Structure formats: structure tokens, C-alpha cells
Amino acid sequence: MAEKFALQITNLSVKYKVYEGTLQVIPGLDLFVREGERVGLIGETGCGKSSILKAVASVLPVPPAIVSSDAIEVFGNPIGGRVGLSILRKNVSMVFQDPSTSLNPTLKISTQMMDVLKARFPGKRKSEYRKMMRDGLEAVSMPAPERVLGSYPIQLSGGMRQRVCIAMALIKDPVLIIADEPTTALDVTIEEQILDLLDYLVREKNKSLILVSHALGAVRKLTDRVYVMYAGNIVEFGNTADIFSNPKHPYTIGLIAASPKLTGEGLADGIAGDIISYINVPDGCRFANRCPRVSEKCQTSTPVLENLSPDGSWQVSCHNHNIEEAAL
Amino acid sequence: MSHEEPLVRVENLCKTFKTNFGTLLAVDNVDFTINKGEVFGLVGESGSGKSTIGSMLVGMYNATSGTALYRQEHNIGIKHSERSKWLKQDIQLVFQDPGSSLNPRKSVRQILGVPIDLFSGEKLTYQERNHRIEASLARIGLPPEYLDKYPRSIGGGEKQLICVARALSANPSFIVLDEPTSALDVSIQAKITNKLLELQQKDNLSYLFITHNLCLVRNICDRIAIMYLGKICEMAPTQSFFNNPLHPYTQMLLASIPVLAEEEEKLKPQRIRSTGEIPSPLNKPKGCSFHPRCPHKNDICTQIEPQMAELSPNHFVSCHLLGA
Predict the structure, then answer these.
(1) Which residues are CB-contacts of B138 (< 8 A; sequence separation ≥ 6)?
(2) Cβ A188–B45 below 8 Å, yes or no?
């Protein structure tokens, strides 16, 4: 393929050894992000979103984690090992959920940003670093950047802290930004500002973005393509517009129906039951115990991703995705 | 309903907290009424004082000034310890995070037994007590297997249902729900909310539903009040509120919701860009507290605090630009 991939994960598997047994969290997962593309990763608590991100960033504690994969590549370079790690550090930045815990409370903002810059662009003069930091903060529309640089995180509001985190992520000029629930801890008016900012910066500087969230609205607003995860598997992926207007997997359908809407037609009933235990993973589809379309086949054979569009850009992993809603 | 019976009436309610940095006015001259059998939504961003109001109604704080009357005669501006037993029983609370509001060392049976022991008012035999505990679990639709489980082995949604069951087993007529679903996943949130509504209709309960999720409020509340920095800036029946949001802050709030479909996008008010952040309540702006973020402000807004005005029936707004 001539396309360039900012990130390509092939057959990633993550397990955790715990006292009760082995948690088979991610059985085998493929995911790719093209250059300049904005990709959303939707999933509820405990579906393995963070395990993927941590595996990519090589920060999973081993043991208890057991990570294996055919390949995790950033711009065609495999990560892992010393060389791989430096490629990773150079090219990938992360923005975390809670800006109040991802900044060090005992260091000034300038010190923390300086650390990033010194590691990425070594051997510059202090005044040059200072200018880069100021520009970085201005890029995220921070009022009074000089004052912010001299502040401690506690002196800033939640929205400003998240802006600092985004500025720190962008300042090292990465190709891929991974944003892990960047607005969950923020209020809705601030959330909008941060999403607009991310949107603008990613477009403007032609970065790739992975937005991980369980806020469906935020994902719809910001991304081109969406992966929907359930219990460690990708159950559906495709263009954001397609998935939101015409979801195919019963989990995606249930999730979108359960979200309260502004139109106010009442709430659907949600999805009954709980996510499966990762210790004794049953045969067949991992969603079978909660699925409204479950059939005998679902209990025995594991579904694989099937093409819904001829070019393979929209795929779903369900035995019964063809069944019409009316037939249920 | 034209002849509504007020259950909770709050007038000029204020609450201040003393901090090291000065006096914090968390709730500032708030008036509202919750009618019998009504779901009243209180919406606001963090720091707007919505939870403080909820906490005051259940008696975690006493009011600094103003009156709060329950069933038109009982003062509920007082602390829990000063309330009569009946009042304690009749007003119950469900917290945001079910994980931290259930005692991890007690089984569901023990948890649900506490309100029965406290409020049943009669000596129950072992069987009767057990029977009531089972009944309160059945009321929220959970099977009796849950009785001997501990919170750690129950999913988040079920834990929140147990919290609801605990509140219900005191047999209240008014429940304060402080963000009951915001710690839960979307697929579970819908289930809990529907259950809450079903119980409300069956037993003619009244809810004060505190939340920051406007979409949720749209689907469940009869009336809504929007709070900003300790004040109510708009209060209206749900239909009228969403058809015609008037206060600039409300419009900003509605415009900033990330929605799921095109037809919802059309329901949002014309896009007002969200600017600025909610100021610290220790350092409130003079005049209208929203003026530093308001796109339409003029001189009067920076000087004089606006008063609540009824612009259309039951639709109250506090804004100079919309006043008569």
C-alpha cells in the first residue's frame, strides 16, 4: 500500500497474570491510523482502551502484563527496544484525562515544559527554550503565557491545566497525538473550547490524532474514523458519519440508543447485563451475554471482522449484523 | 397541572462557607419550588452551588439565611441532627459515586437493613425484617441473590440501584439525586434513569435531580433550573426551556453540547462560542456574575445584579437584556 500509516498495530494481545488467573483482556487486535487522520476509539469502562494505549506507549508493567504483537509501528518503524523507544518518544505525545494529576504539583509549568524540550531538542540556549515555551502556550490560546510559565499547576484552573498539557504534547512536534479522555474531567463549556482547540491544532499542523473517549458526542465532533471496542475486541470500525448514522453492530446500536438526546424522545433501555469476566472468557462472541440478537452460532464461534463496504473501510464483527431491526 | 401542591419551597436561600481566603458565597439568594410528584432538574457547571443546595435540603448543612419549607410547615433549613425523625425519613439522598457510598465491609442485606431498623418504628421479627429487605430489593428489580453479596462483587450499575433501594426502603416522598448516573457508563445510565422514573411514577415521588448533563435532563425532568455561580439564571418547564432558551449562559451551555446526530444539531441555539471560564466564587464579578463571558453585555450588566423576571408563564430569567 502506498498510504503512510502514522501508527499500525497488528495482532496485539495483552494479558494480565493476577491471583485469580490470567485476564485475557485483548485477544488479538489490529488498528491503524493514517497520516493526518483523526481516529476515535470508543468503549466503556473496562473494555481495554487504556491497555492498548499503554501497550503502544510501552508503559505497561511487565509482569503482571504479558504483551505480544506481530508489529506495532510508528511511521513504519517498529517500536520496542532502545531504538524503537526513542522513535516513540520523538513522534508520539499523550494527553491524559485528568490534567490535575498528570502535571507535577511541585514543579513550575516552565520547568516541566523545559524537560520536554531539553529531551527533544537538546543543546539550545535557555532564551530559545523560553521562546519555544511561550509560543507553545500561545498556540493553545493561553492568556498571559509568561504568567502561566511561572505558575504551579495548582494556581491554574482545570481548563488552563488541560491547555498546558496539550501545549506540552505539541511542543515536541510529534506526528501522532494520543488523547485519552481529554475532556472527561472538564465542564461542558470548557470541554467545547478544548475540543475546538484540538480540532484546530490537529488540522492546522497536520498531525494524526487518536481520541479515546466514552463521550460519543466528542468523538463524533472531532474524528474522521471510529473504532468501537467491546471487551478487548474491535467490534466495528468505519467512517464516523457512517457509524453514527447507521451503526451495524448491536453493541454500537445499543450504545447510541442509550445516550440521552437533545430531541428528547425519551431514553432507550440501555444494554442489559455486565461486561464479561476476563478470567473465564466464554467461547464465541464476547458480547453474546448482553446481545439482543444472540443466536446459537454466537455461543460457539467467535465472529471476525467482515467487510461492509467493498474497500474494507467499514467492517463489523457480528454473525447477525444482517438481520433487520424489524425481524427482532 | 394547574393546581400544584408545593412540596419544597425555597426562598432567598443563602449559604456561605468560611475559607482561608475569605467568605465563599456558594448559594446566593435562590428561590424555587418543587411540586409534589415532580422531577426538578438542577443543572450547572462545577462550582455553581447545585450540590450545596441538595446537601442543604437533606440536612448536611444548615442554611446561612433564607427559608426552606417542606410541605409548607416544616423548616428544612436546619441540620440533620435537629430534624424530627419523620423529616429525616421523608427526605432521602442518592450520591454520585456508588462505589464510595456503600460500606465495603457490609453485605447488601446489612446495608438495606439500616433504614428499616431506623425508621420502621415498630419491633420487627427476624422474618418480617428479612421480608422487608427482600421487598426493597425486589422493588428495584434485583433478584434476592444479591442480598448476601458485598459491594466489591457487584457491578457499578447494580451498586447504584442498591443505593436507590436503600433510599427507598426508608419510604420517603422526596429524594435528592446528586448526579446519580455521572459515574456510570452510558449503557447503564439509561437503565438506572428509566428505573428511577418508573419508581417515581409508581409511588408519586418527587425528585431533585442534580446533574450537569443537559441531554439527560431533557429526557426526564418536568422543570429545570440552571445555576451559575450560586444563582439561578433561568428556570422553566422543560419544553419551554428547550424550545426557547433565553439566558445567554443557557444558550452557551446548550450550544456547547457535543451531540450525536444532525437533527440534534439543528435544535441547538444559534452558535454562541463558549469563551472564558467560570470565575472563582471567592472572587465574583460585580453586577451580573456572567458578564465577563457574556457576548451581549452592556454597561448595566457590569454594575447592577439582575433580578428574576417571569418572561412567559413559569419561565423565569435573570438577565438585564431580557427584562421587560
Answers:
(1) B144
(2) yes
